[in-house]
Amino acid sequence: MNKKTSKRRRIREWGIIPGMLPAGNLNSITDVPGVEVGHLTIIRGEGELVPGAGPIRTGVTAVWPHRDNIFKNPVSAGLDIINGYGKAAGLSQIQELGTLESPLLLTGTLNVGRVMDGLIDYILRDNPEIGITSSSFNPVVLECNDGYLNDLQGRHVKSQHVHRALITASGDRVPEGEIGAGTGMVAFGFKGGIGSASRRLNLEENSFHLGALVLSNFGRREELRIAGIPLYNLNLDLKTARARERQDGSVIVILATDLSLDSFSLTRAARRAQAGLARVGSLADNRSGEYVLAFSTARRYQREDNGEVRVSGGQHQKEMKTAETNESRLMNMVFQAVVESTEEAVLNSLFMASTLRGRDGNEARGLPAEKLAGCLNKILQG
To answer: One of 290, 343, 344, 363 is an active-site residue; which one?
Structure first.
């Protein structure tokens, strides 16, 4: 299955620094206070595919905006659909109302329904009034297709796996590569999966963060760019997926910030993730589902007993001084942070993923990080 020959390192650990803004302490979406991420990975069986039985290479990833009962305390959110070839759930209400009342769950395509069911069960335990004396609940589940390595028809992610990912989520640096929802993903012909990065925004006396988490399952090998350098310019003999190279695919980008941004501003920010994806070589292919969801942990709402929500003030509302809210300066910095953190998160998903063999002998090879880094550093250092 896994063929780990050496410890995987993030792109910065090879001396390659994408972008110009400073990274957060963890260089992870969890640099945004309150954000927690958890994974559940399922790797079982080898050999020929038996639909419904395996081999299994899949999982689920959970992203909490905060743990203070997200249903009763929704956050501001925005959404951009770069290309709509996807099967995600719960997005239309975010577009309509501009709020997020659910943890974000990421998984493989045909797992969406079962993950939704597990998420609903989990939220109902803490909110038994849902659908009785309060409003309904909008579960949000996003997906990419892991069928190249995984028994897609088996829908092997169950409620207990969803609950485990939610319960074990933490604010530590996000584990990356072939983990959780990223287990069966392939990007640019190499093993893809989960990646994360963040940027620190220094505004007068205050410091804020913007972080990205990606689920990478997209891209053509010949289009991959690292630090602006096309892979094909390096003249390396690189082996990618054993049976075939992926063409169309999908990518999910989750953006979080502790800036108090409304839904309109978050939607504008989400649109800039496309520039970050383009930096690594995305063409938003015809059958590539590409979704970006952004939320602010600092702009919260409070749900009333009748289900209506109103803006919540007090200690959770981290406001900026008037002198710091020059809209053009602020949003330019936010846009730059989105582009840079998205780019670096995708690269981390590649650099941190190891070779994995799945069903029918299909294999996605890990990016040859050491060989690539050596060539790239020679070029970058002149």
So the answer is: 290
Q: Is 47 left (phi over 0), alpha (psi -120 to 50) or beta?
A: left
Residue 322's pLDDT is what?
Answer: 40
Of the residues 198, 288, 296, 341, which is catalytic?
A: 288
Q: What is the CATH number of domain 11-374?
A: 3.60.70.12
Q: What is the pLDDT of residue 307?
A: 72
Give the residue extent of every domain in the chain. 11-374
CA 249 to chain centre: 15
Is residue 250 annotated as a catalytic residue, yes or no? yes
Assess contact for 148 and 184: CB atoms under 8 A: yes
Q: Alpha-carbon distance 230 to 106, whole Å?
A: 29
Which pair of structure tokens corresponds to residue 332?
A: 């330019």
How many angstroms separate the CA atoms of 127 and 121, rounded?
10
Of 79, 132, 133, 135, which is closest to residue 290 (Cα–Cα)?
A: 79
Q: Give the residues of the chain that fall short of pLDDT 50.
A: 1-5, 242-244, 314-324
Q: Are 43 and 57 in contact (CB under 8 A)?
A: yes
pLDDT of residue 239: 58
Rounded CA gap, 231 and 251, in Å?
20
319 is annotated as an active-site residue: no
Write down the catalytic residue from 250, 265, 296, 354. 250
Pairing relation of β-strands 99-100 and 363-364? unpaired
Catalytic (active site) residue 36? no
Can you give the pLDDT at residue 104? Answer: 98
pTM of the model as a whole: 0.94
Task: Look at residue 341 in the predicted model and tell me its pLDDT.
Answer: 98
Q: What is the rounded distance in angstroms from the CA atom of residue 60 to the CA atom of residue 42?
A: 9
